[in-house]
Amino acid sequence: QLDRRFLDELRSRITLSEVIGKRIKLTRAGRELKACCPFHNEKSPSFYVNDAKGFFHCFGCGAHGDAVSFRMRHDNLNFMEAVEGLASEAGLVMPKQD
Hints:
This protein is α+β, with helices and mostly antiparallel strands. The protein contains four helices and five strands, in the order H-H-E-E-E-E-E-H-H.
């Protein structure tokens, strides 16, 4: 079980669009960024990333979440693997598990 403060610190240190942008091509759309959803087949973009609110949402298939859930789903990782990868990118040391 990870401490909530650690997860909050992790989320504050990463930019969602940078995490997602390393895997799919994002295009600016006003205050948000958009792309074709990586979780279902589509021709026009319905996948939006909102850095200010810290979540992504696809209006086509309903996929929704934050950086951790994106990495879990896109990279086929479990929760701890996704958090460890993001922590490493953010320069954070994972807390010791008891």
